Amino acid sequence: MTASPASSADRTTTAKPTGIGNVDSSSGTRVSTSSSSPVHQPNIRKMRNWEVFPGRNKFLCDGRIIMARQTGILYFTISLILITVALFFGFECRLTLVTHLPFGFFIPIVCGLLFLFNMGCLLRTAWSDPGIIPRASPEENAYLERCLQDENTHEYRPPPRTLDITINGAPIKLKYCFTCKIFRPPRASHCSMCDNCVENFDHHCPWVGNCVGRRNYRYFFLFVTSLTFLCLFIFGFSVTHIIKGTWSKKRNRDNQNPFDQGGLWKNCCYVLCSPLPPS
């Protein structure tokens, strides 16, 4: 008894491997040999805006602090304020506590509060966004170039330098920034130090190491005002101490200075023109 062709074909059929799986000989269906677990894809971290920022700025604390790259004068400003207040606390406040008891305790307290408020306004001005206007995205820039393209010759025409608009019934001219590829809003300007368009741009202050614009103008104003009061406070008590010391010497005229040569002019001549002492 011979075997039928169908039965012999069933015995000789084998599954051929493919790139995806094998074929089951009995059912003809493809059996997957790959793992049932999903393919692991590495996590790709998206870039933050401050990491690809095109301006000349420096970012700290994961982009929460924005500064200009030229920060040397800012540190010099902080050092001047710290040294002045430290000298006032070390000399004038110490003498004032002795001579103006019991109200002398209020003088260092007021000076300390003015100092803390002044430093807070300074750091807030230096570390905050002054009102930087985002630059045009590549899509917006491409759309603008298509709009400015000549329909007949398909040649690129440069954008107009101004754009006339109306705000509250008044005609306003918007200037085009060729660096940021945008029409700047009214009162905005491009800072050459930071290479950014800043809204309500006032000026770039090197003493605070940042631009002064819409978002930090109030803190800059408070910094200048508090610094003025702090300087007047320290200067006033220093002059008062000098005047009181002068009047106390005049009240004690009987105590003559043994090194006095008889006047200001004679004292200067003695110091500058007298013979050198022997070595």
UniProtKB/TrEMBL annotation:
Residues 1-41 are annotated as: Disordered. It comes from the Eukaryota. The chain crosses the membrane at residues 73-91, 103-123, 219-243. Residues 173-249 form the Palmitoyltransferase DHHC domain. GO terms for biological process: protein targeting to membrane. This is Palmitoyltransferase. GO terms for molecular function: protein-cysteine S-palmitoyltransferase activity. It is an enzyme of class 2 (transferase). One of its GO terms (cellular component) is Golgi apparatus. The keyword Transferase applies. The DHHC domain is required for palmitoyltransferase activity. It is a multi-pass membrane protein. It comes from Ciona savignyi. Its EC number is 2.3.1.225. The keyword Transmembrane applies. Signal peptide: none annotated. It is found in: Endomembrane system. Coiled coil: none annotated. Keywords: Acyltransferase, Lipoprotein, Membrane, Palmitate, Transferase, Transmembrane, Transmembrane helix. It catalyses: L-cysteinyl-[protein] + hexadecanoyl-CoA = S-hexadecanoyl-L-cysteinyl-[protein] + CoA. Belongs to the DHHC palmitoyltransferase family. Residues 25-37 have a biased composition (Low complexity). Residues 1-16 have a biased composition (Polar residues).
